[in-house]
Amino acid sequence: MSLEVLVVLAGLGSILLVGNLALDWMAPGERSGSERMALGFALGCGVVALLLFYLSLVYAPLALGLTILFVLTLVSLAYGKRLFVKRQLALRCTKFSILATTPIFLLSGLAALVALKTDLGFDGWTDWGFKARVVYVEGGWTANYFAFPWPEFIHRDYPLLVASLEAWAFAWLGQADEHAIKIIFPFFYFCLLLLFYSAVRKIGSSRIAMLFSVLLGTVPYLASIAAPSGYADVPLMLYVLGAVVFVRRWFERGNDSDLLIGAMLAALGVWVKREGIVYWGINFVAIAIWLALARSKSARVRVRSLLIFLLPAVGIIVPWFAFLSTFHIQATDFALVLDFTRWVRLPFIAVNTIRQFLAVDMWGGLWIIFFVLSVARLRSSNFADGYVWVSAVIPFAVLQLSFLFSIWVPFTHHLELASERLCMHEIAIAWYWIALQSRGLDDWFSELIMRRVKRMGDNSCARGR
User: How would residue 291 be classed by pLDDT, with cut points 50, 70 and 90?
Assistant: First the structure.
């Protein structure tokens, strides 16, 4: 591993530390090491991207430098106080077992090795790498960049989180090194698996959590193509899975801190890819329905819960769309046009969707298992589990139907090129729902082990006689 890659990892470590400070401020308390690491990185990326954006609105040439200065100063003061005043540097978390998560480290290491030997991909360069170079050279997000009539493949309308993270890495390196920044994407994959592991660990044993984490991590398309590439799909998976996990936890426990974390992750998902707005909308509708049905809660409590979810959107999502509107930047791939002749596209979309579900070479047996279990278990699910199911299915359907509004000619080229990545965002949620329906596996494993031990004991006694 080169020195440049280690420097980028150090930069990512500073993001993780500032994200942990944000987590402690929003929702103090003990958490597992895996959950804290994943959440710290996800929130830290949001802190860096938003700081860079808002400082750019004030004075773009110094925005990137001021962002780094602010983050490093905050981290130094906060953790320096813990070390020298409180005489402890430990994060507030329960034991983090490296042994239990060894398969996650191995899978992530393999993804990193593959990533460093491949390129970022065309979209990875034009959508994120080019923007990151602009920020590194200009010092921030300048008005000239957004006003300039770039070719459509630059996609000025795309959100800024991933590009901001790459610009952060360039600043740490002191140069625009597109080889070293490849390590960013396997790190997102690593945090995704950690968050998934911690979520399943809440409902089952460590062996069950690791089993499902490996099943997620070895989904062929995710492990071999998405995780090592410079695309933003794995980062989006981290945010949408995190939002689903914590909103579901709020449905079950009613803890406002869970709702706030879910709201932050859902809002930040919109800053990763435009598709994030679909997942945010699903969460909003689910929460609104839950609050409408929660007759036992007072009106004041219900309004407060709704505001907790909406306020992060006001500070994160609304300013971005207002900014796009100010510069008259429109979507480059889709146009919301009510043209009934486009309904002839439905058969092509339906056939492609079915093909995706049956593509074992891309998704393994995930979708087959998911829909078989859906037939058997969905009616017996409670609201929280049903919400997870909806979060996997509805965005899938909405994103596939969005090709009705594709402006590509022919649209089938767009469908064939992008549908796999649009299908990928839901796979972590789908495996999470399957894990929720498999809570009895622990008892089955324990019973199986006890039978095996008993049989071995009986055989030993028989030989002794």
Answer: very high
